[in-house]
Amino acid sequence: MSKFIKGTLILLVAGLVTRILGFINRIVIARFIGEEGVGLYMMAFPTFILVVTITQLGLPVAISKYVAEAAAKGDYGKIKKILAVSLATTISLSLIFTPALFLMAPYLSETLFTDPRTRLPLLAIAPIVPIVAVSSVIRGYFQGRQNMKPGAVSQVIEQLIRITLIAVLTKSFLPYGIEYAAAGAMISAVIGELASLAYLITAFKVKKKFPMRQNFFQFVQSGKSTFNELMRIALPTTGSRMIGSISWFFEPIVVAHSLALAGVAAGVATKQYGALTGFALPLLMLPSFITFSLSTSLVPAISEANSKKNFKSIEHLLQQSLRFSLLTGGLAVIVLYVLAEPLMLVMYGTDSGTQFIKLMAPFFIFYYFQGPLQATLQALDLARAAMINSLVGNIAKTAVIFLLASQPAFGINGAALGLTLGFVLVTVLHFATVLKAVSFTFHMREYIKTFAIIAATMWLGFQIWNGIGTGLALSVRVLCSAFAITVVYCMLVLLSGLVKKEEIERLPGIGKPLSLLTFSWNKR
User: Fold this and answer.
1) Is 196 helix (H, G, I), strand (E, B) or coil?
2) Tell me: the pLDDT tens digits for 248-257?
3) In whole angstroms, what is the distance from residue 238 CA to residue 290 CA?
């Protein structure tokens, strides 16, 4: 099994586990603090992401790329210098921006978010910044070595600690006010990240093949050329992420002010934004753990292939990733669209957000494509082009949100349409940029078959949902319907030959027997 396939499978399993645990966290938050509490949480969260993006400076992707290239040459001195320079940079930045977040919290909450209750969640999340900064450097190192296990395990640890604490902390703080409960949810995230960092440091000490402390500061002082090399990838990557993070930072601000123009009160706007970003979007983004796993594995794999001028391998990796993203994303769109309302009721105890899923789900195929395409651009030293694409998409998104959400006829649905336009445009621009850089063959028959299967399964999905007895408990009915839809979709995919026999054989445990079954079906 290739390093790319093995690394992707490890990240897929970890991603699935962490997403499930993450949803349990969200369900707990929703049940304890409701839409308004989730709204406060989600209004503060983009600010944290913005500060972390500035602190990381795009280094994880650059570390992954250059560590992969140095490891291919056996240059461990170069790897050590990359890590020393990266750690010094991220720690220095975190020492600047963490206090800045503390000082800016009152202004952000009262003036920009128009809801003073967001101050406490902002203060509670600030200590996580240096923790995430150091963790990202170590994860970048392991990804560059195409060893995805430590990063995957650390994600699971973080979620387990968070889920252990979140119910206790939100329930304990709730009597003091909903903003205290939202801050409690943030504190659980800080402690979870700290536990994750402790594991990563331990794994790094065990796995590394060179002494890290020895001559550390000498490596930092003599690392100007290494720093410049890292910045060639890191700065455009940061630019791309900064654009997304700044856009996300302004998103709740633009939504709040737009809805105010539409005549929506601040408290109601917070609830509606909570339903959109705290209930609907996490469900729609659930399959992105698959594309994230592919993207994380793609950067070092394509970087290594590109350094060897193996363009055939680059196209093969990209074709595999896009096909897998389409197949898995297609199933997600079907399940979410067909079961939108019952899923909301089962998970959150409310149908708030159902309309957003119905509106956005058909377009989320574009979002699932975006990760592998961006990873390919970064690995091919086209991070600057990816940054420009992100800038165009996010400007368009923000403009549409303001134009539509400020109209009473659209309201919060205008924000959903703006978000949709943003990620569709970025994905289309990424794809156009990739086509200029590498040769790419369109297998039109595969795409036509896939979309035909998606349409057929969606129609069958509604029949399945309506056919399963209404006398069953709603949660049981949802599970049975989702399982039946998944089985139907997978059978159609296997029968159509969209997944190759040798690819199925690589699945641990069930691969060989399932591949025999596929072969017999295709043979008929």
Assistant:
1) helix
2) 777 888 888 8
3) 23
